[in-house]
Each structure stands twice: as C-alpha cells, then as structure tokens.
Design a protein that fits this description.
With 335 residues, the chain is α/β, with parallel strands linked by helices. It is built from ten helices and 15 strands.
C-alpha cells in the first residue's frame, strides 16, 4: 500500500507545481467481493493522467469521468460502482473522490514519516446519503500531526473509514550474482525497497541492480549495523557457505520477518549446526524465521522463476497464508 501512496503523493506534488489539479479516489466501502479491498487509492489529474488503480481496469474509466465534476466544483463526491454486472466480481463499490490539495507541510511530513519507518493512519469520512455525498473528506495522521487532504474540514458526523498504513516492506539481498539481480528486479517491481549487501571485495555497484534503493559493499560487522525491523526480509545469496554463515550470525538478535537460504536442506542444516556451535543461546523464534531452501514448490528452474518462488514464499509468511491454489480455497480470497 505504501509504495502506491508514494507514487500518488509524489506525482501530486509535481502536478501542483505545474498548476495541474489532482483528485484522490479512495475505496471506502464494499458490499460483496471485488478485485481489491477498501483502502486502495488512486489519483486523477485534470489533464487525464491517472496514477494507481483501484480495480483491474474497468472502474477507473468511470472514476475519471466523475472526477471532472470534482475539478469543476472543487467539492468531493461519493461514487457508486456496481461490479456485479460489469465486472462479475459480485461487489458494490463506494469510492470517495475528493480534491487533493496538500500543503508543502503535508508533503514534507509524509516523506519524514516514510523515512521513519513508522505506521500512520488515514481517516476518510463519507456518507451514502444523496444529500451528503459531497461532504466527504480524508485526513492523514502522521507522527507530526493531522494533515487534511484538502481545505475541506472533515465532517466527523459522517461514516468513518480508517486505514493503518504500515512501513514499506524491505528486502535485503546478501549477494551480487545474476540471481540476486533478478530477485532485485522482481522485488522492486512489487513495490518493495531493495537493499543489496555484497562483500567488500566484489567489484559491483548499485548500477548493476535495477530497482535497488541502496548498495553496500560491507563486511558482516558493518552489516549488523544496518536497520532491520518486522517489515524486513533477508535472503542469503552469496553462494559462499563461509560468507553466508558470517552474515547469518549477525541476524540472531534482529527483528526480522523472514530469512531465506539458498541451497539444499543439507546445506541449511550444516549452517544451523555451525551457527549453534558459535552461539548455543539462539532462540527458537530465530530458527522459525529461517526458510531453506528458500521459495515455494512451483517447479522453478531459471533465476527469474526462482525469484518468483522466493517472493511468493515471503508474501505467504508475512501475510500468514498457506500457499494453495485459489480454486481449492473454501472461503473467499480476502477472508
């Protein structure tokens, strides 16, 4: 969610500097099922440019059409979209479209909030009553305070939809071979922040990793000083047993959601055995985070397919889901 918001907010800042109006569209309620859930957002500029999407593509055309009224009147509107007949999703969407007029203070606070890697929330007030559909508005709640989306003061007697936005997910790749490059590409395309960590003696740079946000040529002690949190996954791809052991040993006390190891299960067991030889006080929680061989069984063979397999496993872990075919799921996709 955060990476989509970054695109929306940063593009709105550029549009604002060019004198181009922007509207923010937020799915605030849903009856039934839909392609995406309440809380998904997109923006529309008065020149017709759209950033993001709230569905597979059909709803956006209607949002673009109704946004013209928002530009003309400078007031919000609650749009209804019946996807039962148009999309086949059996869902009825309620989408708040409002003028997006952030101040410079809003833009600065948003960037600082992202950098802090702390959660924040967005509250959207709306009404399904015809007489009050133009009164809806949203407000961002950062650590620095409240920042309304527009000059309209939220009317708190309306229905409230609140969403918590977690810090952006971060993937730390320890390694710089061809498979690391592919994993970096796919992870960055997913919207994750990708950090490449390579041994000091590697003659590589960030230019070798499209989509990476940072590149560090550092040893294991310097690696330990990097920031880690519960929104972080680490994958060991150095292709060196000795290096993997050194870097892995520095993660024992870190707050991480996932640690992936390449290679067969025998290599994993040897790594864990040698890790315990160095430190016999490692908690079971740490070992529960380790997944080796990394990835889910989809028959992956090429570096690109292996990257998909690894990303799928990380998603299943952080979303607490057991990978199965959706056709075999007995309840709804989002339940």
């Amino acid at each position: 969610m955060l990476h989509e918001l970054k695109d929306i907010i940063r593009s709105a800042k550029i549009a604002q500097s060019l004198g181009i109006k922007t509207a923010l569209a937020s799915v605030v309620s849903l009856d039934g099922s839909s392609y995406r859930r309440p809380g998904v957002r997109m923006s529309i500029q008065e020149n017709g440019k759209m950033i993001g999407a709230v569905s597979g593509g059909c709803v956006e055309k209607e949002i673009l059409r109704q946004a013209q009224r928002v530009f003309e009147t400078n007031t919000s509107t609650l749009m209804e979209y019946d996807g039962r007949y148009r999309l086949g999703c059996e869902g009825f969407l309620y989408i708040l479209i409002e003028p997006f007029q952030p101040t410079e203070a809003f833009f600065n606070a948003f960037e600082r909030q992202c950098f802090s890697r702390k959660s924040f929330s967005i509250s959207s007030y709306f009404s399904k009553e015809n007489s009050k559909r133009h009164k809806g508005s949203s407000c961002f709640h950062f650590s620095e305070g409240e920042f309304p989306v527009s000059i309209v003061t939220p009317e708190k007697s309306l229905t409230l939809f609140t969403q918590t936005i977690k810090p952006g997910f971060k993937l730390v790749i320890v390694g710089c071979e061809h498979d690391a490059v592919q994993l970096c590409k796919y992870a960055s395309a997913t919207g994750w922040e990708v950090i490449i960590v390579a041994p000091i003696d590697e003659l590589k740079s960030i230019d070798d990793f499209p989509g990476a946000s940072s590149y560090f040529g550092i040893n294991e002690k310097e690696f330990s000083a990097l920031p880690f949190d519960s929104q972080t996954a680490v994958i060991m791809m150095s292709h060196s047993y000795v290096k993997d052991l050194k870097y892995l040993s520095e993660l024992v006390e870190k707050e991480i959601s996932y640690i992936g190891l390449l290679g067969p299960s025998k290599r994993r067991e040897k790594l864990l055995h040698d890790l315990l030889e160095k430190n016999d006080l490692i908690s079971d929680d740490f070992f529960d985070k380790i997944h080796g061989p990394a990835g889910i069984n989809i028959g992956a063979e090429t570096p690109q397919e292996i990257a998909i397999s690894i990303l799928a496993e990380i998603l299943s872990v952080i979303r607490n889901q057991k990978p199965i075919s959706l056709k075999d799921k007995q309840i709804g996709i989002h339940q």
